[in-house]
């Protein structure tokens, strides 16, 4: 189906399941995300959050179910194609080019995903490209590290560089896997604020995985809770955090008796 | 063009200097340089594959195709034109690498090395049994003409040498531009992190596929020069030890610049000349020992010595963060 | 009917040989994570030692049995010694180097071993057909087949069973399996990983030399025999899955039968049979029949 209705959600998962040799990491996940929403995905370790992003971003093929992007069936479409269609994704473990400098990483991102294909044969070592890359790094406050090799950067900076590279092409849908993990606690809200500002300004739809519930409460317009590969709650933050299993298993602070 | 690229400058000036120096060089030096130039092209192919961390043990296949391009175009079409010979080999290797690439582009590391080796050995096994390729004796290659100009006997050697030098210059510069392009950087990035490359919207497999084709063309150009210099083409060009020598060249010279394989190749040919004089029957032993010594003591190749010297001489860049010396 | 029998017998006999040639390679890959191109060198050394030993034993008037015993023992001892030297002096310094460099180092070792064999035994061929001829032939159905070739298959089966037994039923074997599975974890659990690696390489070299020794009475032992073998052995173990012993058995059978089939029905294609099988298997299962790639966690 390629005909897209005007009201089609940006992202839709229908009965998405993934099993790894018999072990079900995702079970019949249904999820629809509309334009401009900021969805926080929560769940304990191994709940299947990253697996869900891997499927949505085309890194994994679902065992069952379908994924739609703006009404178009993109099930099993590889990540490179989705990246060009406007789905950007950051990683829990930053995926960088460790033998290049931070600036070169950013330059490469800009010259690959954010540029027309035919420019691929033009010179890499180009002043305009370098300036654009420096600006992009500056946007995330990491321009100071531009000339360091990635393998020598602290974890927090890598995380930001990873996000900067992922979002270099003005995407429609941004998937962030634990954007603040590894970032020092003082910088956490700073980073998140920067991201929120940026995506609010462009009206970009965001799905982010996060373990820090304060961050989720503050920035998510909607929360999806996963347990053992299934969605157990989905709705506005207050509602989801009031869910007994969510409070008990994911947040780790059971609700007081009779409060559910 | 803002300012001239030093590598291009060196290549052009070097080629011009060699062209004029040829009549004053002893015959064995001319021949040695010609063979070194020829072998450095497939080695350059190995080098661009190594940029993505891929070790090819089968570049000899394209060396073979290039050499037979010249030989077969003459044997069957009666054409002895140097340019057409190179083109024929290049076209054939684009075809072969285009097909082979579908199969091998998804393999990495040991698999890539051994599969390229296996493929070239299949072709070798076929060629030694086929009359088309002159079986194990090979085919003779005529004295070449150049776009209708047939040099006199006295000038044939000079013409061929100048031809080799400038063919190298063209391919060397083209490869240099290729490597310094964004695609060239993408090739390096593949070794670092394929997942990220894919998420940046590019197919790693296509990039590797394209790169194997480019490497194949370089290899075939070298093969054509080798056949023209030696005046024959035989199946041993596809034998895996031939391919091994190309990797050896990259290994000893490092892979910093397109000129590296040329130096490596001259080093190898010089070594071969002296080894032939002093240890006529132990060439492989000498080659293996030198290789082991370099792997053990200079794993980044002799070329790294130049890089280290250059870095010691150059003033440190004044950047916010210090650049580490060692990138691995 | 007769043709089918011939193909079957030929195929199995060839498979036995292929297994002997491949087992050392796959074992070393499993434990040391390196494709040992020098394996072909050990094969050649084994063949030379065996041919020499058979000649020497014959000149002392020993019978075919003792000739072979001496040949095999000599090959295994020499192969093991050289393997030990190579691992301790060269490979041990390279384990933290990139895969590509290690591969190249084994190539360099192969070149050196080849020339050393040539220096020791000269460039001429050695012939050691006596034991194979002495054992005569045996009737399999309507075929008469050399006893020696049947014995080769028996040796291959014994080596396979022995390897299986050591890996699964002994303490050392379980340590080896642990190292194959996860080197860091085994080290943390107190397994002497470096000893296991040395030991495996020595055993792998011995097996390579044994394969050469077993082959010696069937061929003209001459320079260059190692090259072909390394490519074939690689094909066999890649079909089964690098590092898998069961894979080597299956790979050997598949290649052996395919080649016998091609030799008898399409003789012109026999050279390609091995590679065609390899290409088909890898096209369907990119890492061989019994190996699965480890997905990188992102
Ligand atoms: N490629 C894979 N092969 C096998 N199992 C996998 C694979 N990827 C994930 N799993 C398993 O699936 C389950 C869900 O993993 P996933 O990474 O999605 O969890 P998560 O919710 O992101 O957890 P965390 O908060 O720790 O990141 C885990 O048990 C994991 O071991
Ligand atoms: Mg996760």
From TrEMBL, chain A:
Keywords: ATP-binding, Nucleotide-binding, Transport. Residues 11-253 form the ABC transporter domain. Gene3D superfamilies: P-loop containing nucleotide triphosphate hydrolases. The keyword Transport applies. GO terms for molecular function: ATP binding; ATP hydrolysis activity. InterPro entries: AAA+_ATPase (IPR003593), ABC_AA/LPS_Transport (IPR051120), ABC_transporter-like_ATP-bd (IPR003439), P-loop_NTPase (IPR027417). It comes from the Bacteria. Transmembrane segments: none annotated. One of its GO terms (cellular component) is plasma membrane. The keyword Cell cycle does not apply. It holds the Pfam family ABC_tran. PANTHER family: CONSERVED COMPONENT OF ABC TRANSPORTER FOR NATURAL AMINO ACIDS, CONSERVED COMPONENT OF ABC TRANSPORTER FOR NATURAL AMINO ACIDS-RELATED. This is ABC transporter ATP-binding protein.
UniProtKB/TrEMBL annotation, chain B:
It is a multi-pass membrane protein. GO terms for molecular function: branched-chain amino acid transmembrane transporter activity. Its main location: membrane. The chain crosses the membrane at residues 31-49, 61-77, 83-104, 111-134, 154-179, 246-268, 283-307. The keyword Transferase does not apply. Keywords: Cell membrane, Membrane, Transmembrane, Transmembrane helix. It is found in: Cell membrane. InterPro entries: ABC_transp_permease, LivM-like. It comes from the Bacteria. CDD domains: TM_PBP1_LivM_like. GO terms for cellular component: plasma membrane. Coiled coil: none annotated. This is Branched-chain amino acid ABC transporter permease.
UniProtKB/TrEMBL annotation, chain C:
It comes from the Bacteria. Pfam families: BPD_transp_2 (PF02653). GO terms for molecular function: transmembrane transporter activity. Its main location: membrane. The keyword Transport applies. The chain crosses the membrane at residues 12-35, 42-62, 68-88, 100-127, 147-167, 187-210, 230-257, 269-288. GO terms for cellular component: plasma membrane. It is a multi-pass membrane protein. It is found in: Cell membrane. GO terms for biological process: amino acid transport. Keywords: Amino-acid transport, Cell membrane, Membrane, Transmembrane, Transmembrane helix, Transport. Belongs to the binding-protein-dependent transport system permease family. LivHM subfamily. This is Branched-chain amino acid ABC transporter permease. It comes from Acuticoccus mangrovi. The lineage of its organism: Bacteria, Pseudomonadati, Pseudomonadota, Alphaproteobacteria, Hyphomicrobiales.
